[in-house]
Amino acid sequence: MRTYLVTGGAGFIGSNYIHYMFRKYGSQIRIINVDALTYAGNLENLKEFESWENYTFLKADICDKEAISAVFAENEIDRVVHFAAESHVDRSIRNPEIFVQTNVLGTAVMLNCAKAAWELPDGSFQEGKKFLHVSTDEVYGSLEEDGGYFYETTPYAPRSPYSASKASSDMLVKAYMDTYHFPANITNCSNNYGPYQFPEKLIPLIINNALQGKKLPVYGDGRNVRDWLYVEDHAKAIDMVQEQGRLFETYNVGGHNEKQNIEIIKIIIKTLREMLPEDDPRKALVSEDLITYVEDRKGHDRRYAIAPDKIRKEIGWEPETMFEEGIRRTIQWFFENEAWMKNVTSGDYQKYYAEMYKDE
Ligand code: NAD
Ligand code: TYD
Questions:
Q1: pLDDT in the model for residue 351
Q2: Cα separation of 71 and 37, whole Å?
Q3: What pLDDT, in 10s, does the model give residues 278-313?
Q4: Cα of 305 from ligand 2 centre, angstroms
């Protein structure tokens, strides 16, 4: 039975990936989920697997060398899928240091421990072991409105503390591949959306605020462009790259679904109004009148757009969920999981929101 070590599996993409992998492989695989359970980690996301014999959760920080090397010593790990990171640009602008610590130092610890566990006396690596580093398109910087696409060959030009820390972690992975021939891949994916996304990010924040009749904060002129991918398509891409991709390669992942933020917000409002039943009191609250332009994000990247040609040609990956369907599935999930949203927006989140948006 193949054993996966997943870091950050209690977060948004990591938990969707674990759901995807158990749906696909069932009892044929074992998953060990290592997560520090920061504000972004939530074991509720994985409660259906708690009693499974082939699933283990371990609360640990990826910067903790002893804890991570113990996981490798006590288990025969075949695959590492490394999601754990600080992931929110606005938080990185307020507090960059934790991004360097988790994203850079944490990745160094993961690489070192995997290398120590998998390396043979002659410097080669045990057959079949693989490390996948989950990264972002933000490492490539910002595109002009009509300025082309990000390819795997596009030079790195990160502009926020978040993307700079992810770029550094990518460079470390590349250095391990070049120096030691360490068996790894990197994926650089565009913006994800879907179930379990923490409501500090645009799409769940807008859904949550709209349903409460709260203002919908739009940074700057609202015309910054992101390339949105349904999270399940990302999970599938990660699995396909690890199983079918060429080792040592980077693959860009994206769905050619570029939209301005203001378009996204208007689609969410329209879809919520279509999906809410006539007699639901929230229906009267959801309206474009809630849209509120606020101060722009510092250094706000204008546009991201992925060229997914390589992953399509080499591996045959294509996104399956078009945006109109993905946003409906996401909204439906939030309708059915009100308690989840209430849980994650209590306590610390309220403090963050009040400071970040000055209680707009
Ligand atoms: P998230 O913030 O929802 O989840 C991050 C998870 O990592 C949480 O469970 C958190 O508890 C855990 N974590 C944080 N610090 C840790 C530490 N020191 N030790 C152990 N665990 C720790 O993030 P996400 O949106 O799911 O992103 C996952 C990965 O995918 C990140 O590496 C991110 O850079 C990358 N990515 C995200 C997107 C996106 O749109 N969200 C797009 C492309 C790539
Ligand atoms: P976000 O979801 O934070 O992802 P990223 O910054 O990593 O792309 O933001 C997506 C876009 O939405 C980005 O251009 C910033 C913008 N945005 C708003 O306009 N208002 C908001 O309240 C948030 C959270 C984001």
A1: 87
A2: 17
A3: 999 999 999 999 999 999 999 999 999 999 999 999
A4: 15
* Residue 358 banded pLDDT, cuts 50, 70, 90: confident
Amino acid at 325: E
Q: How many Å from the N-terminal Cα to the C-terminal Cα in the chain?
A: 52
Q: Which ligand is nearest to the CA of 303?
A: 2
* Smallest CA separation from ligand 1 atom 42, residue: 191
- Distance CA(68)–CA(202), nearest Å, equals 33
Token pair 């696909």 in the structure block, residue: 24
- Cα separation, 231 vs 255, in Å, equals 11
Q: Exposed/middle/buried for 100, CB within 10 Å: 0-12, 13-18, 19+?
A: middle
Sequence-ordered list of residues with C-beta below 8 angstroms from that of 123, at least 6 positions apart, any chain: 180, 181
The mean pLDDT value for 225-245 works out to 98
pLDDT score, position 360 = 57
Annotation says 35 is catalytic: no
Q: Which amino acid is at 49?
A: F
Position 23 scores a pLDDT of 98
Residue in the structure block whose two tokens are 């009267």: 284
**Cα 354 to Cα 360: distance, rounded to the nearest angstrom:** 8
User: Which atom of ligand 1 is the closest one to the Cα of 16?
Assistant: 26
Tell me what pLDDT residue 359 has: 62
CA distance 336 to 5: 30
- Whether 20 is catalytic is no
| pLDDT for the residue numbered 310 | 98
Residue nearest to atom 3 of ligand 2 (CA): 201
Whether 137 is a known active-site residue: answer: yes
- How many residues make up the chain in this entry? 360
Contact 301, 142 (CB under 8 A): yes
CA gap 28, 4 in Å, rounded: 11
- 203 and 191 Cβ atoms separated by less than 8 Å: no
pLDDT per residue as tens digits for the range 146-164: 889 999 999 999 999 999 9
